[in-house]
């Protein structure tokens, strides 16, 4: 098949990692894959995949609402799609999802699919909510299938008349499970933790998340003082990069417990950071079903997570983690302190994490399911021209 994926931005975050994993698997299995992304991108990340697939930057595609940029991006993408004539256009993220699907309809692409990684109209103001809902409903008209990262994403879409139930397919955001279940500590952990060489490891709290306002790093840093009050030698590791870095740095700088907080940026081996942690945390106010939570559990670490749509599909409160109110970051900090101060309870949750069945989040399972959705969409077309590569299903299996 000729497949085009469209992303608003290409940074080191969950939806991008999910999309890249899918692109690379499709390319390995003989499909012709093109990745189109907007103006915001990580050049190192872009270069890392450019050898396996065609990567195209669309400078007019930007996250904020901008009529002039949006109209330009729509026209540019429509012309590219007419030139490439793909079988499938698979869009991701909000802005690319809207512009990409409208461009695909105008270019008469036979298969138009949207990946629902997050819902832009959840936990926003009423005006934004109505604008996003109207745009999503408009873009839903030419969409033949939605790929949702959780049952909750599907249910919310259907409840808001964004696609019919039969158009929605749940495909969990896959990753290499063994990479996390067999991880060891990073080299020289004292450097990451800011402790003396040879000193005993202090209690470690890890937040592995892109530096974006919706992840609420700043609010958690402000609440972390109450954790230090109860566990004085604790360390908070913040791993990730993103547009909110300056705000996060400023929050650390004004914190009275700044010496207990380490901002380490992007780390190429997140599984090792999880192995080093005693408790992992995610305080997002808006997400799909975040893959990082599954990575925490795959690493056998209890997690404290905000109550996000679909989180109950994998995090069982008091069994393998703690779920706190989405609007209360202070409750997350209190739960972290409770876990650090109660080793038997923490060990019980870690054992629950270890026993969690994550087989549906395997990378091969994700790629095979996506391929099935593609075939079902193209199979419904009365006439189409699909390359011979379509006859070859994914053959890589970890099971």
What tags apply to this protein structure?
Rossmann fold, alpha/beta, 399 residues, disordered C terminus, 16 helices, seven-stranded parallel sheet, 15% strand, 2 domains, six-stranded parallel sheet
Overview of the molecule:
With 399 residues, the chain is of the alpha/beta class. It has helices at 14-28, 43-50, 67-84, 94-106, 126-140, 151-159, 177-181, 189-193, 217-223, 225-230, 245-254, 270-276, 291-298, 329-340, 343-355, 363-379; strands at residues 2-7, 32-37, 54-57, 88-92, 111-116, 145-148, 168-170, 204-208, 235-239, 261-265, 279-282, 303-306, 321-324. The protein is built from 16 helices and 13 strands. A 7-stranded parallel sheet has the order 3-2-1-4-5-6-7, sandwiched between helices. It folds into 2 domains: 2-174 and 362-391, Glycogen Phosphorylase B (Rossmann fold, 3-Layer(aba) Sandwich), CATH 3.40.50.2000; 177-359, Rossmann fold, CATH 3.40.50.2000. Helices cover 42% and strands 15% of the residues. β2 (32-37), α2 and β3 (54-57) form a beta-alpha-beta unit.
Topology:
Elements (H helix, E strand, L loop, with lengths): L1 E6 L6 H15 L3 E6 L5 H8 L3 E4 L9 H18 L3 E5 L1 H13 L4 E6 L9 H15 L4 E4 L2 H9 L8 E3 L6 H5 L7 H5 L10 E5 L8 H7 L1 H6 L4 E5 L5 H10 L6 E5 L4 H7 L2 E4 L8 H8 L4 E4 L14 E4 L4 H12 L2 H13 L7 H17 L20
Parallel strand pairs: 1-2, 1-4, 2-3, 4-5, 5-6, 6-7, 8-9, 8-11, 9-10, 11-12, 12-13
Structural class: alpha/beta
Overall structural domain count:
2
General form: globular
Which regions are unreliable across 5 or more consecutive residues at pLDDT < 50?
Answer: 383-399
Q: Numbering strands along the chain, what is their spatial order in the largest sheet?
A: 3-2-1-4-5-6-7
Helix content: 40-55%
Quantity of strands, as a count: 13
Q: In DSSP terms, counting alpha (H) and pi (I) runs of 4 or more, how many helices?
A: 16
């Amino acid at each position: 098949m000729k497949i085009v994926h469209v992303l608003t931005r290409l940074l080191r975050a969950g939806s991008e990692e999910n999309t890249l994993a899918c692109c690379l698997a499709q390319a390995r299995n003989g499909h012709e894959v093109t990745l189109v992304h907007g103006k915001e991108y990580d050049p190192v990340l872009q270069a890392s995949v450019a050898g396996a697939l065609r990567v195209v930057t669309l400078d007019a595609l930007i996250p904020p609402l901008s009529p002039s940029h949006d109209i330009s991006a729509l026209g540019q993408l429509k012309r590219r799609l007419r030139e490439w004539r793909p079988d499938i256009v698979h869009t991701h993220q909000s802005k690319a999802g809207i512009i990409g699907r409208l461009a695909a309809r105008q270019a008469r692409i036979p298969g138009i699919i949207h990946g629902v990684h997050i819902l832009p109209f959840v936990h926003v103001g009423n005006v934004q909510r109505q604008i996003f809902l109207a745009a999503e409903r408009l873009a839903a008209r030419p969409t033949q299938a939605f790929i949702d990262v959780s049952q909750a994403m599907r249910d919310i879409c259907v409840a808001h008349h964004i696609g019919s139930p039969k158009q929605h397919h749940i495909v969990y955001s896959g990753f290499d499970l063994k990479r996390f279940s067999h991880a060891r500590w990073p080299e020289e952990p004292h450097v990451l933790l800011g402790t003396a060489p040879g000193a005993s490891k202090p209690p470690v709290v890890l937040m592995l998340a892109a530096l974006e306002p919706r992840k609420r790093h700043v609010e958690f840093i402000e609440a972390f003082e109450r954790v230090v009050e109860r566990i004085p030698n604790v360390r908070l590791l913040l791993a990730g990069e993103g547009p909110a870095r300056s705000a996060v740095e400023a929050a650390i700088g004004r914190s009275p417990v700044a010496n207990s907080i380490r901002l380490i940026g992007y780390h190429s081996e997140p599984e090792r950071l999880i192995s080093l942690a005693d408790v992992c945390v995610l305080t997002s106010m808006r997400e799909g079903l975040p893959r990082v939570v599954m990575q925490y559990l795959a690493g056998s670490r209890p997690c404290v997570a905000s109550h996000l749509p679909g989180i109950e599909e994998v995090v069982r409160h008091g069994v393998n983690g703690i779920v706190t109110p989405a609007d209360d970051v202070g409750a997350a900090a209190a739960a972290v302190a409770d876990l650090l101060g109660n080793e038997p309870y923490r060990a019980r949750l870690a054992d629950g994490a270890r026993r969690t069945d994550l087989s549906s989040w395997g990378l091969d399972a994700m790629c095979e399911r996506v391929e099935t959705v593609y075939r079902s969409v193209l199979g419904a077309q009365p006439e189409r021209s699909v390359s011979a590569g379509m006859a070859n299903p994914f053959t890589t299996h970890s099971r």
